[in-house]
Amino acid sequence: MSLTVGALLALSFFISVLGLFIFIWAQTKGLMQAGPDAAQVIFAKGELGVVEEPSISATGRATLQRVESESSGIRFDAASLHTVAKSAEFEERIVIDRSSRTAAFAFLTSSMLWLVLGSIAGLIASQKLTAPDFLTGSAWLTFGRVRTAHLNMVIYGWASMAGLGIALWMLPRLLKTPLMGARFAVAGAGVWNAGLAAGVAAILSGWTDGLQWLEIPWQIGILLAIGGALCGVPLLLTLRQRKAHHLYVSVWYIGSALIWFPILYVVAKVPHVHFGVEQAIVNWWFAHNVLGLWLTPLGLGAAYYFIAKVLGRPIYSYNMSLVGFWALAMFYSQAGIHHLIGGPVPNWLVSVSVVQSVMMIVPVLAVGLNQHMTVAGRLATLKHSPTLRFIVVGAILYTLVSLQGTLEALPFFNRLVHFTQYKVAHAHLGLYGFYSMIMFGSIYFVMPRVLEREWPYPRLIGLHFWLVGIGFSIYFVFLSIGGVLQGIAMLDATRPFIDSVTVTGPYLMARTFGGALMTLGHLVFAYHFFAMVLDRGTRRSGSVLLGSARPLGAE
Amino acid sequence: MNKSLTIVIGALIMLAMATLVLVALPYRELKGEAPPEQLKPYTLAQLRGRATYVNMGCVYCHSQQPRAANFGPDGLRGWGRAPVSADYAYDYPNLLGVSRTGPDLFNIGARQPSIDWHLTHLYQPRSVAPGSVMPAYPFLFKVVAHPQPGDKVVGLPPQFEPTTGKVVATQEALDLVAYLTSLNHTYPIPADTSGALK
Description:
The complex is a heterodimer of chains A (555) and B (198).
Chain A lengths: L4 H24 L7 H4 L18 H15 L5 H8 L2 H12 L1 H30 L12 H33 L6 H24 L12 H24 L7 H21 L6 H36 L6 H15 L14 H13 L1 H15 L10 H24 L1 H7 L3 H31 L6 H34 L5 H6 L2 H29 L22
Helix pairs in contact in A: 1-12, 1-13, 6-7, 6-8, 6-17, 6-20, 7-8, 7-9, 7-11, 7-17, 8-9, 9-10, 10-11, 11-14, 11-15, 11-17, 12-14, 13-15, 14-15, 15-17, 17-18, 18-20
Chain B lengths: L3 H28 L12 H12 L52 H4 L3 H9 L17 E4 L21 E4 L1 H12 L16
Antiparallel strand pairs in B: 1-2
Helix pairs in contact in B: 2-5, 4-5
């Protein structure tokens, strides 16, 4: 059988579009039984239009409620809010929130520590590209190892553990059932931390499996697989006991992510099966799916919940979220080989991945429209809700980073930016601009519920936002420009290769500066987090305490 | 959508499809490939050197996959022809790399066969390549007052010499250079390996 590339492109495009139409058809036939009531499952009776924002004080919440009521037209007086707050569903939610406290706390606290360590490692690695003789005395601190330690700490420590913590906290709320088997998740956090700590030590000491994103030796990686699987146990147990009739869109994302990740990890890690170029293919199938099928669903699941919940407003279109979910699962999972465009891999394989990268526009627009339309007309609320501010920025950057990813997969543009710092900027736009921003916002929402305590220094939230916002803008803009200039120099055969190195110099320096601001923001965040854990600072209104049952907007 | 089973099965089908296309089919297509005749398996010293290349993380800045002419001037830079999958038959783990902070190294052994140059470059890249941002690897060398016979002394421009003694390569540095100088895939390949679906 011999097929031309064009025929293959056409074929995989055809199959993709066909798949999409089958889903739309199944949906219109009611096979998936979605409807407006499914979008409202996250609200208690009478709660529509009521804001929930635990990260601010009672007065702040009253302002937020007033602003939101002005745009939604649903007005509440103090008495009617009080009635809602005294309802049985709210009492139940207090029990539900308490069921996940320990598990969420274990994961989120760990994620904070990894965020700080990972940022410092990243900063050291960045400085090394500006000053290559900085810290070259020991093999433990050579660029190739510190950079790898940074990647593993932020992906498996910060991003994964934050995502798991938020997911474990959301699940019981989404399923309207106390979290079952929380102790499995807590054990999972312990095993995961142990595996990651050992893995990072192994990398720094020179013991590595040598594959990108899969450096942690498989003997240690088993711990990560076990830790991840342990987190799946409460999901399954709680699903079986669930009282919610409808499964909210966040549950699909979280549930699928928890199923996908262990499979991806085990298939990619099996030792002595993969070989040569085939191993490179599996490598990028995995590395791309860590983003697409693990972190992206966790981030989008959180965004779908918190945007709607903070505003007290159901998501714009529930049906669109169905398209977004299934199209993501279908297209993202096959896009990974665009990392090997122009490499020694079969042409048909690259074609498949390029087509699927273009098809990614479908879920991205579905998710983007859905989330942006939910916030549309409510932009004034961003000023009053830190959770929303972080998450909406993250959701906007999700749209941008995905469209940018599609562009990079197109051969004409890939030719220019492949192998350059532009890719590093793109990766950070995804993992930081999109994912981490959403996690920051989610943590600000969740922690007051977990600890039943207010954030002690509200001004630090704003400081955190502006430090990482400005720092990351500098990081991204300069590194992208530097990357394009690097690509232009590399493509010009009349210029020596070293030109492509020296041209990036000032941009890499700017990146280090942006990274330093981001790290500073993380230190502020971590300080605030642990000040809250240790119950520092003065009590202000005390009204986020669930025991005193005033989780609503006005007082 | 209310059935959790729908989601679980759907999620598994999606991943199974991706695994079939991106893992199973390439495995089947590439498994039986014989290495090119002129490609030699690595020697023990080269394998040890390769392990150092892996654990120092050289792959994060150096690719080993020259692109074809329609993707850039790699050939004009002397980086070699576009590789085919069989060229990587002895590579475990693979080191294709996706970044070029430094140049492609797939044929560095052909381009720069000098052991002395590589040792000097590893000890202090900027002594032979001004403007380079490659880290120095002084820990792969030792400074001795009086080199013994059989010691490999590293030649350095005066300003990079240590204040006292001479720089001598460790076995690890020599192995790494043995690996680097072995990277030579300039042999011709049959014309029909276009990579099209067979």
